[in-house]
């Protein structure tokens, strides 16, 4: 015989509610008595504070794209089909996943109107594809910048659709636009991108000095580069100059290295910030770096590249690159802006260094693309075709993960190699290296990253069962409130026993995103539980209900709710969609 369903009674304060079924009269066995509000308050408190979780094991993730003879990516391989080597030593693949392009729509709970609870809310397309175009105006020549800017307009006009959002960024920080589907705003942002005024590297460009040569002269003490630069200094200075050529070379190299490293640091910092920004977007995430490339002359910049790649991989962000120089031809003696030398042999040597520098600049573009499963477009002047190609993500990307057993926190480089046990006409594109961290990650910083990465994601996680309900109420035609009600099933939570109490800490974060996927606001609530057995038994039955509210104006919104417990380090993550008319 089915018992009648009992009404739920809620006791709420501070945004937290306890739901319990009203007990039937005169039960045969004494029921568990529900705690009074005063008792429960003594056993539970809420406050805003960062949750502390243990530091994660250092994990190296390696995206791999496998293509057949026709160049099509394939997704039928398994973990056992791959071999992974760190400095030539085979590694055990502990993580394995296959990311497929064009995955189904993001699952989301729909909100109801409190005034019209039976009315079905219209479907509003949730943004699922985010493309950030980063123009490296710090390094781009004026002509290349204008050409790529016009090609980008044609490309974006043809690729923008209802579920795609586009952002425009520059390494100079000038003329930027956050994610939007507004074509006019995108065109205005592109038109604001102008040639960047670079700092001079040496007065009168004498001797001629590139960042590549400066790195050879100062960091590597390359005697051939020093001799070529000294001969150039001798040829381009007047006879009245008493400064020795060697001193001119050293001065010019130090100046070029200082300016070049500053510009490289600027580009890397913008890329890092953009990756962090992209982790706050749902669905497919990709960056398109439009650049002539740049150098990482100092060894201490290599770990920054590894950190950038690691962050992008963890955030499922693909970095695609386009060499904006197009078809490159070395002009003997340099272009019109370069001072020539009277020594033909020396001109040839300088041209050789410029060509080598160009190849070195391309290396960073290839590393960023291959390290994240992206595409690299080069040696072609058709910017639109290049952008069309790189934003077309591979249908399948494998992500291999391993934890080095003998990790030394020394910052040294580790070469990576991925191979197939049965290559049979297949080709691989994979991350080629990583740098060991110089120190273990701080536990509090690791905890913040765990929470942030979960909030700025759209994956459904059900380690902890959480029921999500969304309601909205319009108080005026232009004002509304969204209620987010999360019921947490505590039966499977792990509690720390302390005398007669059961202890755990729950952190709930509710995030509000607008129709462009941009973060609007968030609420974080930490719930410290210090429960008696009676209270815990009651919560096992009723669950723990947490309520948060957002004041909004009419529009389409996405809600992201994440719950994490400190003892078991389990997580729940749910999505919701709200259309406020």
User: Uncertain segments of ≥5 residues (pLDDT<50)?
Assistant: 1-34, 48-56, 336-341
DSSP E strands, number: 28
CATH topology type of the largest domain: Rossmann fold
The quaternary structure here is: single chain
**Mean of the pLDDT scores?**
80
Number of structural domains: 3
The CATH fourth-level homologous superfamily of the largest domain: von Willebrand factor, type A domain
Summarize the structure.
The protein has 581 residues and is an alpha+beta fold. The chain contains 11 helices and 28 strands. The chain has 3 domains: 8-53 and 444-580, Immunoglobulins (Immunoglobulin-like, Sandwich); 60-101 and 397-440, no CATH class; 136-201 and 258-390, Rossmann fold.
What does this structure look like?
By secondary structure, the chain is α+β, with helices and mostly antiparallel strands. 28% of the residues lie in helices and 31% in strands. The protein contains eleven helices and 28 strands. Strands 3, 8, 20, 23, 24, 25, 27 and 28 form an eight-stranded mixed beta sheet that branches. The model is unreliable at 1-34, 48-56 and 336-341 (pLDDT under 50).
